[in-house]
Amino acid sequence: MSTRAPRGEARLASHGTVASAMRRIRVTLAYDGTDYHGWQVQPGLPTIQGTLETVLEQIEGGRVHVAGSGRTDAGVHALAQVAAFSLQNPIPLPNLRKAMNRLLPRDIRVLSVEETRPDFHPRHDAKAKTYEYRIFRGEILPPFERFYLYHHPYPFDDEAFMALAPLFEGEHDFTAFAASDERDALGLSKKRTIFSSQAERTGERLVYRVRGSGFLKHMVRNMVGTLMEAGKGNITRERILELLHAPLGVKAGPSAPPQGLFLVSVEYD
After folding, report:
1. Catalytic residue among 32, 35, 73, 157
2. Which alpha helices (H) appear in the chain, and where do they start and end?
3. pTM of the predicted protein model
C-alpha cells in the first residue's frame, strides 16, 4: 500500500499553512473483510478502523480517531458501513474521498463523504441496521465466491429455516444470542427490536436478511446458526422462543461462519 499522501494535502496539515476549524466528517464505506481482524483496532493486527486511521493521519498530519456504526467481526464484509471522524485539514470533500481511496488498499473503498454536525456519532445516532447472510446450497461452491458465501451442500430443510426466521421479529432480550463483550461489565440492556427477519431461497442461494434497531456481538451469526440447527432438525420452534426469554448463561446454537455476513446499510434520521 502506498504511504505517500497526495501532494499538497499532507503539506497543508503538517506545516499548518492554512488554519481552519475542526470539521466532523461522515463517510460511507464498502469493504471486503477477508484479510482483516474485524473493524476494531487491535495491536499488531490489520483492522478496518486501524487502516482508516493510518490513512487519515497521513492526510491530517496528526492523530485521527475513526468511529464506526458497529464493530464487524473478522472476515465479515460491508456494503455500506458508516464512520465518522474530525479533521482540521480544509481539503474539499471530493478531494478527501479521492485521497482516501488513493491511499487505502483496494479492499476498502470510500463511497461517499459529507460534513455533518459536530456531535454526530455513527453508532449512537443510528436508528436501524440491516445485515444479510448468504448461504450456498449447491454441491460445488464457485471458487471466486468462497470468501463471500457459507457453503452448506448437506441435507437441510430450507423451508424450516425460512418459516422460523420471523420468530426473531419484535422486541426481545437477545442475551442468549450474544457473545461475551468487554462492555458486559457496564450492565447494559441486551434488548433489541428486530423490525424484519426473513429468508428466501433463489436457485442455489439461501439468503437471510435482518433489519433491527441494533445488534450485539455475534448476534446475527448466532441467529443464523440457530436457524441452521432448526433446518437440520436439531432445534424446534419452541426452543427458539425459549432462547428469546432464556436466563443468563443459556446460549443459542453455534455461530455461523463470518464470510457469509454482510452489513448492508445503516439508517439515520
Report:
1. 73
2. 9-15, 48-60, 93-103, 158-164, 219-231, 237-243
3. 0.89
